Amino acid sequence: AGNGGARERGEAGGPGPPPVPERVLFPPTFSVSEIKNKQRRHFMFVRWKQQQRREKLAAKKKRRKEREALGDKAPPKPVPKTIENQRVYDETTVDPNDEEVAFDEATDEFAPYFNRQTVPKILITTSDRPRGRTVRFCEQLATVIPNAHVYYRRGLALKRIIPQCVARDFTDLIVINEDRKIPNGLVLSHLPDGPTAHFRMSSVRLRKEIKRKGKEPTEHVPEVILNNFTTRLGHSIGRMLASLFPHDPQFIGRQVATFHNQRDYIFFRFHRYIFKSEKKVGIQELGPRFTLKLRSLQKGTFDSKFGEYEWIHKRRQMDTNRRKFHL
């Protein structure tokens, strides 16, 4: 009855002014954690986040108006602070014009590949008794890397597999390890003299799990892009990954394999270019995708007992500073 009476009075007296939205102003010392009631605490947290968002948007509009008013005299936009641009300087950062780096590249284990003296031939295998997801990942990885062959372990030790690979002219050995039916590790050994890198693998996505994926990849040799491998260690890892693919890509296939290093995580993506017009180009992901984290780099081929390690990731000693990166 009360609501009906209010409605009748509104009709008689005409429409009233629109309701003013309530603005919540929290004091600077406001703390959501002091509210004891859970529902009330959640409600006030949402309102507080909305106010923070409004204030941030208002400050952004104010700065934009000030810049438009100043015109050409406006100061340059401040560069936002990120972990990448605040990275701690590494003394092993590679200078492309360094003679020592050029000499190392001309004499290291990957020099025959970059001099086009050898053609990559890759053997992809798994841990013992692989599950279906690991098997499918190996099969899809073989379609990304040209001249790659998938064989199953059948209980053989890696020390016995490596001499057989060398005898059959394989240049690299890739071992996909798994845990609880999920691929979680990758061992990459360059043959016949090493080195051997051990990666932790995560965020594996097969082709059927990728949204808006393209058609199956063709047999064209893809282009390889290496991003942000700046240190001597990162330079070695980048050359190791590049040596998996033939040196001369077939650009007519419009396929590209990307290894992007960010905060020592190596993100792998496989795309195809789509030319929409003369000025617009899109990309279409083909899959699979995964992320690598370097755990160790060993001289020579795989030898877990007596191998000499060039670099080992030690979390308690190396991860003390979030802005310190090794690749």
Write the layout of secondary structure elements.
Layout lengths: L1 H12 L24 H33 L28 H9 L3 H4 L7 E5 L5 H13 L3 E3 L7 H10 L4 E8 L2 E9 L5 E10 L17 E5 L4 H11 L12 E8 L2 E11 L5 E5 L3 E10 L10 E4 L2 H4 L9
Record field, number of beta strands: 11
**How would the global form be characterised?**
globular
Approximate strand percentage? 15-25%
CATH class of the largest domain: Alpha Beta
Pfam families: Brix
InterPro entries: Brix, IMP4/RPF1
GO molecular function, one term: rRNA primary transcript binding
Organism: Centropus unirufus
Give a verbal description of the structure.
This protein has 327 residues and is of the alpha+beta class. It has two domains: 39 residues; 224 residues, Brix domain (Rossmann fold). Helices cover 29% and strands 24% of the residues. It is built from eight helices and eleven strands. Strands 1, 2, 3, 4, 5, 6, 7, 8, 9, 10 and 11 form an eleven-stranded mixed sheet that branches. 21% of the residues are buried. About 2% of the residues have low confidence.
